[in-house]
Amino acid sequence: MRSKFYRALVTMKISIITATYNCEKTVTSTLDSIATQTYPDVEHLIIDGQSSDNTLNLLSCWNAHTFILESSRDQGIYDALNKGIFKASGEVIGFLHADDVLQDEHVLEKIAKAFEDPTIQIVYGDLVYVTQEDLQHVVRTWHSGKFNSRKLRRGWMPPHPTFYARRSLYEQLGGFNLRYRIAADYDCMLRLLCQKSICIKYIPEILVRMRVGGISNRSLRNIIQKSLEDIDVARQNLGGGLVTVLLKNLSKLNQF
């Protein structure tokens, strides 16, 4: 049931971007988590990389909520997300990947509430990792904690699926750098978070349930490539490098 409060006071559209490619096993749970949101002013953009499985058929049959669909060849997930940023018309932009779900039906209400303060430019929260087969089976919990710019050099970073920013920031600073195949989200967030006098709001609640098995840890080769990209990202944005990335990886130990 839609919140009466938000029906009366909606003034801000939130754009959610979902990149899809051969995700027939998980995409309907992602769609359902957006369809059941109580916050009504949501623009959902699905950018598909010309899926060859049943993904597009599932999308064409979906009628629980409306969305904008584009299916075309791309250069990977970050290229797809950039296309979504370019097409988005909402004042605030967030991302929900095709194997992730929002924690409950009130997540976008909470995001919108945080952005009611016009000085707030970025909002983020906490995340849990769940198994591929069972969204209720938690294997890791990522408690972000409050933002402090000094923590960035110590490898701190909010979980990207909980990261919402005003569209004007992307227009000013750009989206995802395609030179990075795995760490473009780290680079993009650092670019935004490193801005002087930026106002950031932390919501100390689980906002997203994320399935394990992403590209960054799918193989030893990917783990090595991600580490090398992370080092370059830290060097470019923070002037740091290896130490920052080592601390970034060590910080994950207490999530298990």
The biggest beta sheet reads: 9 strands, mixed
Percentage of β-strand residues: 15-25%
Order of helices and strands: HEHEHEHEEHEEEHHEHH
What Rg do the Cα atoms give?
17 Å
Strand element count: 9
Q: Tell me the helix content.
A: 25-40%
- The span between the termini is 35 Å
Task: Describe the global form.
Answer: globular
Total helical segments:
9
- Model regions low in confidence, pLDDT < 50 over at least 5 residues: 4-9
Helical/strand content category:
alpha/beta
The average pLDDT value, as a whole number, equals 92
Plain-language structure description:
This protein is of the alpha/beta class. Helix content is 34%, strand content 21%. Strands 1, 2, 3, 4, 5, 6, 7, 8 and 9 form a nine-stranded mixed β-sheet that branches. Strand 1, helix 2 and strand 2 form a beta-alpha-beta unit. The longest helix has 19 residues.
Per-chain topology:
Layout: H1 4-9, E1 14-20, H2 27-35, E2 42-48, H3 55-61, E3 68-71, H4 77-87, E4 92-95, E5 100-102, H5 107-114, E6 122-130, E7 138-142, E8 164-166, H6 167-173, H7 184-193, E9 200-211, H8 220-238, H9 242-250
Parallel strand pairs: 1-2, 1-4, 2-3, 6-9
Antiparallel strand pairs: 4-8, 5-9, 6-7, 6-8
Helix pairs in contact: 7-8
Could you give a short description of this structure?
By secondary structure, the chain is an alpha/beta fold.
What are the salient characteristics of this protein?
single chain, 256 residues, alpha/beta, 9-stranded mixed β-sheet, globular
